[in-house]
Amino acid sequence: MDILLLPRSLVLILQNFTMSLQEFDALIDRMQLAFDYAENLGQYVDAAKILYQMNEQLPDDLQISLEELDEPEMAKSFVMRYNSNIKSAIVDYRQRLMNF
Questions:
Q1: What is the domain extent for residue 55?
Q2: How confident is the model at residue 70 (pLDDT cuts 50, 70, 90)?
Q3: CA–CA separation, 12 vs 28, rounded Å?
Q4: Cα dihedral 89/43/35/74 (nearest 10)
Q5: Residue 14 domain-assigned?
Q6: Of 57, 53, 50, nearest to 96 (Cα)?
Q7: Which of 20, 15, 36 is nearest to 93 (CA)?
Q8: pLDDT band at 1, cuts 50/70/90?
Q9: What is each CA distance from 49 to 10, 13, 39, 59, in whole angstroms?
Q10: Does residue 45 fall inside a structural domain?
Q11: What's the Rg (C-alpha) of the chain?
Q12: Whole-number Å distance between alpha carbons of 53 and 73
């Protein structure tokens, strides 16, 4: 088995840009609780804002291109449309962190 050795400076840079699996899980868990709370109360504008924040925690290549909400009435359909997409991207990123 070949072992790839990276220069220490590159390893430090990678560590600074990549959060650990535990840090990512803790952050997403807090956001998921907030999202569930807002959605259960019918506060879809707040739930949509949380989805935006969750999406921003993902690497650029996994981020979903989200549309801007012009009206609060559109928030419910926005949440329904993008919730599963963002959850799928979160699972993909967790896989990356586990393999890193």
A1: 19-99
A2: low
A3: 24
A4: 0
A5: no
A6: 57
A7: 20
A8: very low
A9: 34, 30, 11, 18
A10: yes
A11: 17
A12: 20
Indicate whether 12 belongs to any domain: no
| Two tokens, residue 56 | 């921003």
Average pLDDT value for the chain: 77
End-to-end CA distance of the chain: 17
Q: Three-state SS across the chain?
A: CCCCCCCHHHHHHHHHHCCCHHHHHHHHHHHHHHHHHHHHCCCHHHHHHHHHHHHHCCCCCCCCCCCCCCCHHHHHHHHHHHHHHHHHHHHHHHHHHHHC
The count of domains in the chain is 1
Residue with tokens 């549309």: 67
What mean pLDDT comes out for the span 41-61?
86
Domain assignment present for 6: no
